[in-house]
Amino acid sequence: MPSTHDPQLLKGVLSLLLLQLLAEQESYGYEVVQRLHQIGLLDVLEGTVYPALARLEREGRVSARLVSSKAGPARKYYRPTPAGYAALSSGTASWLSLADVVGSVLNRPTPAEPIEGA
Amino acid sequence: MTHSISWIDRARIERAVWALDQRLYDLPRKSRIAKRREVRENLITATTDIGARGALRNLGNSRQLAAEYLSAEFGDEARPSWMAAALFLLTGQLILTSILTEAALAFGDGITAANPSATGTFTWRGIRYLQDTVTYTFVNGESTYVGGAWTPFAWVIWIVATIFVGRLWRVYSIWRRRHM
Fold first, then answer.
1. What is this structure's pTM?
2. Chain A residues 3-62 within an 8 A CB cutoff of chain B
3. Fewest Cβ atoms closer than 10 Å to its Cβ: which of A59, B85, B117, B132?
4. What are the start-end ranges of the E strands in chain B?
């Protein structure tokens, strides 16, 4: 099924998704992209994820280590730092709260015509 | 399916990495090298997975990717480009100084051609307002010359142009945002 997620919406929660995936399993850049694809986010491409990982690293939310690879050059594996876990926790709470509010509004039945103003 | 990496794939990967690297010169050297290595490694892995064409397509435009990396490193605020400023100043100086030196030498050669045993002092004004006067001293056809340097006005133009090319006024904006 082709993915149709709004890139702007995705961009807003990409760092949260990355932190969650890295909290579940330490990964390198391309592996993170594959894992995003596996959960259905097919429109998140490498060109978006690699800079997002670099940003998280600069912000001190993930740390990286090089692991030698049989396939070629050493791979850079990322994992969340304590600051990353804190950001994940607060970001998740914030996102879920927003999703609740937005969901409760968007799930209301849509009338055929808007109620006329006074 | 695992794809083997041909030398053509390897060349395409290196080209993409090089194109990205050329746009990352404003990053600290260590960070730039780290990005280059990481992108190369990821491209190689992606190529074995989906082929070079798909790997490069998914990486996207090198200009956009570089902009994202720069934004990740420095934040979203508008930045100066020290590399553009330095390149402009150095190459501009090199090219114009070479041309003006050739012009000064041509002036001397003209005097020698007109009178192979010339003796005396000859001046060439150079580019008015931008260059000091070039003064040739001839003794029996042998010459030395002094002058031709940039005037203070020319240096002001150089500095203004360098600031403009490197957008260096943004340094002040950044400093103000951080300190005021």
1. 0.69
2. 28-31, 33-34, 45-48, 50-52, 54-55, 58
3. B117
4. 120-124, 134-139, 142-146
